[in-house]
Amino acid sequence: MNTVVDASAVPGAPVPDTASAGPALEVSGVSVRLGGRFALREAELRVARGELVGLIGPNGAGKTTLLRAALGLLKPASGRVRVEGRDVRPGRVAIGYVPQRHEFAWDFPISVENVVMTGRTGRLGLFRRPGVEDWRAVDDALERVRMADLRTRPAGELSGGQRQRMLVARALALQPAVLLLDEPFTGLDMPTQELLSELFVSLAREGRAVLMTTHDLAAALYSCDRLVLLNRTVVAEGTPRALSEDAGAWMETFGVAADSPLLRILKAVA
Amino acid sequence: MSPAEFLTDLFNPDLAFLPKALLIAVMSSIVCGVVGCYVVLRGMAFIGDAVAHAVFPGLAVAFVLSGSLVIGGTVAGVLTAVLVAVFSQNRRLKEDSIIGVFFVAAFALGIVIISRAPGYAGSLQQFLFGSITGIPDEDLFIVAGTGLVVLGVVLVLHKELVTISLDRETARALGVPVFWLDLVLYVLVTLAVVISVQTIGNILVLALLITPAATARLLTDRLGVMMVLAPLIGAVSALVGLYVSWSWDFPTGGTIVLVLTAAFLAAWFLAPRQGLLSKALATRRDATGTPPVAAAGGQGVDGPV
User: Fold this and answer.
1) Interface residue A154 vs chain B (CB under 8 A)
2) B42 to chain A: which residues are within 8 Å by CB?
3) pLDDT value at position B41?
4) Which of B33, B44, B3, B82 is nearest to B242 (CA)?
5) Is A115 close to B167, i.e. CB distance below 8 A?
């Protein structure tokens, strides 16, 4: 508050731009009711540009609910979600979403580049066909995930890792400031996971705010800048190093005892 | 009957209903072929069946009141589609159960309504199995006009319809109005069904929607090609079906469907990459250890086997 007052007091001083100064994704006090009970209670989460944040929690902890609220697909009972300082609304703010791979219709006869172009359907709006600018965005997105040489391949013929990269490219086609990834590692082998981790880290370093849910603790501890432990609400958050020493937070999040293999893995990785 | 004789009959003024039936059958096959691509790719065959049955009470009401069959059928089909869409919001029941409830109910309602009409048995059979006689001239224009509208909407909304077919959640996140597009697709399916019901009948119309698109899917991995192939297969099958039924005095709807099925089976066995035949050949090639490159170069073929 003080800085704002000071800034306006001095003539000609630059007014702080709240949109770029604040976190790219800001979830504040979000509660979501699903079927009469709270799937999420007072969730607080911030992701800045340049940051890769891992969202960790057991099944049913509300990870997907949090992502859906962040996308504006669920109306929170309370709280708000802001992207670059603006209230989130589907199609209104550039937020890239990479769903779990099984959400996608892989038997659909469509080429990789056309799938990536569907990422711009909402931006294009009704009745408009893709133009030069749209194809350039698609080219960039494909280039970014190193799929340019597979662009004419039918989507259904891709391997698991390629499929995941295509879905990332579709999200990147909007050139979003925020990228949300839902379980990107599920069902992929280790080398593929490592390549994807590297991709996500570099996507963040280029100035995007990247948030991913995952059950893969090793990958999350290794590549994420920060981890958020979720179980109906945010139990704890911090750097992987700090959190791996906080056994209590993990026990609370996953409801496990002190001798759980989970905690032993945690110690081994840290 | 030779094709030449069929052609003569087509231009015989005493058989004026024949070219009309052919035109309507071909036009509705084209429309159904295009719309059917979405139905097949989204696994909506059951919904297609439901809509086909749901138009029945509308047709019956229109028939009893001597109104327009197209309008009657469309109103009933869309009403049922909206009911299904609204009732599906209840999470306790899956959509297919809701559809199961409503389309049989609609069909039952149609039977009760049409039973009040004079000449009940004859008209019922005509609705269920189609008829090529007694098509009024204005229906030609109604079918053509409706068909153009359907194809126009598909052209305009293609990008959106593909986006929601690929993955609905992402489409929603992109701000694409998924619910409304679903509704539009139901209406398109309904219109395609309604304009086809007359020649092919209520029970068999599903074949016109599903079989050409399914056949085309076997032949290509590209949506654009599929959406050209499906109406082509449908139109040719309608032509061949009408010719065969006229020559041997078979029921028209049934014959067209059997021709379509033959095309589907042919594609199943002979498709270039996915067909059983090419798979069998590929297996044999692998077994004999002949590299595919050599075969393609023509050297492996000429050598002693």
Assistant:
1) yes
2) 105
3) 92
4) B3
5) no
Work out how many CB contacts closer than 8 A connect A with B.
86
The predicted model gives A90-100 an average pLDDT of 86
Return the closest-CA partner of residue B27 out of B160, B191, B180, B245. B191
Smallest Cα distance from A11 to chain B, Å: 42
Q: Is the CB of B170 inside 8 Å of chain A's CB atoms?
A: yes
Beta strands A226-230 and A52-56, pairing class: parallel
Enter the tokens of residue B177: 């109005």
Domains of chain B from N-terminus onward: 3-292 (1.10.3470.10)
A contact residues 90-109, partner B, Cβ 8 Å cutoff: 90-92, 95, 97, 99, 103-105, 107-109
Pull the structure tokens for residue B223: 């949506």
Cα-based distances in Å from A206 to A48, A83, A173, A176, B72: 12, 17, 15, 12, 58
The 10 Å CB-count burial string (b at 16+, else e) for A215-254 is ebbbbbbebbbbbbbbbbbbbbbeebeebbeebebbbebb
| DSSP per position, B85-112 | HHHTTSTTS-HHHHHHHHHHHHHHHHHH
Q: Sign of the C-alpha dihedral, residues B131, B136, B139, B141? A: positive
Residue from A76, A145, A71, A69 nearest A113 by CA? A145
Q: Which residue has the higher pLDDT, A99 or B99?
A: A99
pLDDT in tens, A199-254: 999 999 999 999 999 988 888 888 999 999 999 899 999 998 888 888 888 888 98
- For residue A260, the surrounding DSSP H or E stretch is none
The segments of chain B whose pLDDT lies below 50 read 290-305
Question: Which residue among A90, A114, A170 places its CB closest to the CB of B175?
Answer: A90
Q: Name the one residue in this structure whose structure tokens are 């008209």.
A: B123
- B-chain CB neighbours of A156 within 8 Å are 221
Amino acid identity for residue B246 in this structure: W
CA distance B280 to chain A (A): 20
Structural contact between residues B32 and B54, judged by C-beta atoms closer than 8 angstroms: no
| Chain A CA closest to residue B222 | A109
How far apart, in Å, are the Cα atoms of B192 and each of A219, B84, B134, B135, B181?
A: 51, 19, 20, 17, 16
Task: Identify whether the C-beta of residue A266 lies closer than 8 Å to the C-beta of residue A217.
Answer: yes
Residue A248 CA to its chain's centroid (Å): 26
In this predicted model, what pLDDT tens digit does every residue of A162-176 receive, in sequence order? 999 999 999 999 999
pTM: 0.83
Comparing C-alpha atoms, which of B38, B170, B229, B151 is closest to residue A117? B170
ipTM of this complex: 0.84
**How sure is the predictor about A21, in pLDDT bands with cuts at 50, 70 and 90?**
low
A191 vs B: CB within 8 A: no
**Which residue segments constitute the domains of chain A, with CATH numbers given?**
19-94+176-269 (3.40.50.300), 104-160 (no CATH)
